[in-house]
Design goal:
0% strand; 97 residues; 4 helices; 2 domains; mainly alpha
């Protein structure tokens, strides 16, 4: 197998272990403090922000507008709908700009 396949398998294994490890560790505590629960609930949002923030700085206006539209839609609509609409907006803006 080539290096890319090994990299893919290693990333999948690390992701699986971190997800399983979290459940194993938290199951040992029984109940967790509400602040810990709130912090864990905020992790997906923080990860998405870390992935999206560089696009705001390094890419053009089409990406910035698509991210803003996605954020506004995400306030009221489900995540998948927000992502789908923002992708359509991004493709449309890249075509126009």
């Amino acid at each position: 197998m080539d290096d890319l396949t090994w990299l893919f398998l290693a990333c999948a294994a690390v992701t699986y272990l971190t997800r399983c490890g979290r459940h194993v560790i938290l199951s040992r505590f029984g109940t967790i403090h509400h602040r810990v629960s709130a912090a864990l609930d905020a992790v997906p949002t923080a990860v998405m922000a870390a992935l999206v923030a560089p696009s705001l700085v390094t890419h053009g206006p089409a990406e910035v507008l698509a991210i803003l539209v996605s954020g506004l839609i995400a306030l009221r609509a489900p995540l998948m709908f927000s992502v789908a609409v923002s992708m359509v907006v991004l493709v449309g803006l890249r075509t126009l700009i």
